[in-house]
Amino acid sequence: MVKVITAISVIILAAAGCAAEPADDGRIQFYALDCGAIDVADMSSFSREGKFDGEKYALVVPCFLIRHPKGDLLWDAGLEQSLVDTPDGIGGGAFHSTMKIKLTDQLAQLGLAPNDIEFLSISHSHPDHAGNANLLASSTFIANQAEHSFMFSDKMKENSGWFELYAALENADTVMFENEHDVFGDGNVVITSMPGHTPGSSVLLVRLRNAGPLLLTGDLYTHAGARELRTVPTFNTDAQATLKSMDQFEALAKKENARVIIQHEKADFEKLPTFPEFLD
Ligand SMILES: [Zn+2]
């Protein structure tokens, strides 16, 4: 029986295809791109209560391309793609980052260059989510107002090691939102503010015709264990706000009956079609 089910899934995946153009029948296409990996030698910083002390964990770093008949949205911009040129990766200590394929090379498989993408939005501005943001500076930047203020604050400009990764967005066409933004105006691609991890962290809901509703966490949950145990990492702006956002997220997931994708969770990523295959 398992073999039969596997064979059927293969056929379904093959039928999903890999068209270079968005469907013209109103369908939305959802692609998960490989935008790097972070091997964590000690997960202690992922729980302020020490729940993961000494654990090793392999995190994935995806980017997501949502192709809507009205335009393309890139959700999160991954690790900075010059990392591909350092095959052994960078970082020692607790975090080791690697990247196998550039974002631009993956987009090229769909016949796309970064400036073909109409909209960029990021779950938050940490360097594993904003790494290639400068490449998308000609897109319209859909920004959570609180995150935008944080990103372009004097403190981030002067002291963060990663401001330069997204500096070009300061002059991009920008659509600002406070609580929620319906990207294409049809309720199918909706960004919702769920602050705490950073001042203006957000999550993304995508309603697909065949695959159903998907809910992408950003780093509200850093990995599967974080959702199980409701852990707040030490690298987090506001723990109380994070816990409140977790409640809001779970209520939304339940209301939408959504498939939750914890973005850094390898098991969630591996269940998605391998790029350039997609969900629709
Ligand atoms: Zn992250």
Describe the model.
The protein has 280 residues and is of the alpha/beta class. It has a single domain (2-270), classed as Metallo-beta-lactamase, Chain A, CATH 3.60.15.10. It has eight helices and twelve strands. It has helices at residues 2-16, 103-108, 145-151, 154-159, 163-166, 224-229, 239-256, 266-270, and strands at 29-40, 57-68, 71-75, 95-98, 119-121, 140-144, 174-177, 180-182, 189-193, 202-208, 212-216, 259-261. Strands 4-1-2-3-5-6-7 form a seven-stranded mixed sheet. The longest helix is centred in the C-terminal third of the chain and has 18 residues, at 239-256. The radius of gyration is 18 Å and the shape is globular. The two termini are 26 Å apart. 40% of the residues are buried. Mean pLDDT is 93; it is low at 1-19. It binds zinc ion. Residues 126, 128-129, 219, 264 line the site of zinc ion.
